[in-house]
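Look over what follows to help learners.
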Amino acid sequence: MATLNVFGLREDWPRRRDLIAAGFAEFDPQLVALQEVVSNDSVDQAAEVLADGYEIVHHTEREDDGQGLSIASRWPIAATHEVDLHLGPRPAGFACSALVTEIAAPEPIGRLIFVNHLPDWQLTHEAERERQTVAVARFIEGLVGDSRVPVVVAGDMDATPDAASIRFWIGKQSLDGTSVCYRDCWTTRNPQSPGHTFTPENQLTTTAEIGDWELELGRRIDYILVRCSDHGPCLDVVDCRRLFDKPSGGTWPSDHFGVGAVLSPVTPSGRRVP
């Protein structure tokens, strides 16, 4: 599975579209979470960058140009839910949201919950991200109940691994009397690498949008997380890598790097993940 902030139609979209399409064709994910992706009467960016065979759902909340969240799946999408993240005055004007899908994956996986999570982006809005993250986590827990359904949360979470909202996801702190635990795929397979996904390594990060991020130092803010039961993750993290992290002919695919993960319902010893 994979996640990518597509960066809308900005900065030579036709050229970037070709690079993103080629990258997804090479990685060939079963599930894709896309952020800042435009869907309107004339454009469907998700369909443009993904090959045939995907079912695509779009979050109903879009910005004026149609930008918002989308999920694509090669497996049937049995149900779709939306979590409103406008929890206070400051998120107004930004399509912060969560798109939750119930996927009918083949056995031995079965029902799987795949979530695309995009909280507030502003550096000063960690308080908002905390509230938004708790709201999404509580919705997932209500959806899963006592069952052992695999859950994967992916997206541009706009916070570094040491932020409270991410520490909450990975079980290192509680928020508002709630605690969960998810396995961070990147850290699992790349414990010594910072894995920055929004970084001055990428020319678009510092030059696009009239250079607002010119002083960016580099952060990991894009994630794939796997929900844990009391004893460990619901899927084995076989691999996790950055995607779209190199330019071609001077063009970068997006202002973010993507993240791709390979997950398995079977442990290294051959047992089905409990």
